[in-house]
Amino acid sequence: MFERTDAHISTWVIAIILFIVAVFLHKSGKEKAMKIVQMILRVFYLLIIATGVLLFSKFSSIDPALYGVKFLFGVIVIAMMEMVLIRTKLGKKTGVFWTILVIAFVVTFYIGARLPLGWNWFAA
Fold first, then answer.
1. Are the CB atoms for 33 and 14 separated by under 8 Å?
2. Helix count (H) and strand count (E) of the chain?
3. Which end of the chain is more exposed for a tag (fewer CB within 10 A), N or C?
4. Mean pLDDT across the chain, nearest whole number?
5. Which residues contact 52 (CB under 8 A, 6 or more apart)?
6. Separation of alpha carbons 1 and 62, rounded Å
7. How confident is the model at residue 40, as a pLDDT?
C-alpha cells in the first residue's frame, strides 16, 4: 500500500506553504486568519508524522540508523515550525528557532534524498 513517498512529500510541501502563509499573515496583522492557517497546519503536522511513521516502519530495515536520524530531524523541523509561530504570535524573539528550523530542514531533506526511496541526487 505505501511503497512510495508521494503522500509524505505532498504533506510536508503543503505544510511548508501553510507555514509561510501563517508567517506572512501575522506580519500583515491578520491574527484570526493566521490562527485558522495554524490550526490547518497542525493537522498537516499529524499527517506528516503519520506518513513518516508508515515509511519508517516499512523501510527502516534497509538502514535503521539513517531512517532514525531522519525521523528525529523531521520531528525537530515540525517542533521548530510550531515554536516559530507561537513565539511570533507572542511577540518574542525567534532567531534561534529559525536557525534550528533551517538547519534541521536541510539535514532532513539531505538525508531523505540520500535514502533508497530518495531521488539519488547525491549518488557518487
1. no
2. 4, 0
3. C
4. 90
5. 8, 71, 74
6. 18
7. 97
What type of residue sits at position 63?
D
Q: For 63-67, 101-105, 106-110, which range has the lowest pLDDT when averaged over its residues?
A: 63-67
Buried b (16+ CB within 10 A) or exposed e, 89-123: eeeeebeebbebbeebbebbbebbebbebbeeeee
Cα separations (Å) of 33 from 5, 68, 98, 110? 31, 35, 22, 33
Q: Which residue has the cell 484570526?
A: 32
Question: 17-28 burial, b for 16+ CB within 10 Å, e for fewer?
Answer: ebbebbbebbee
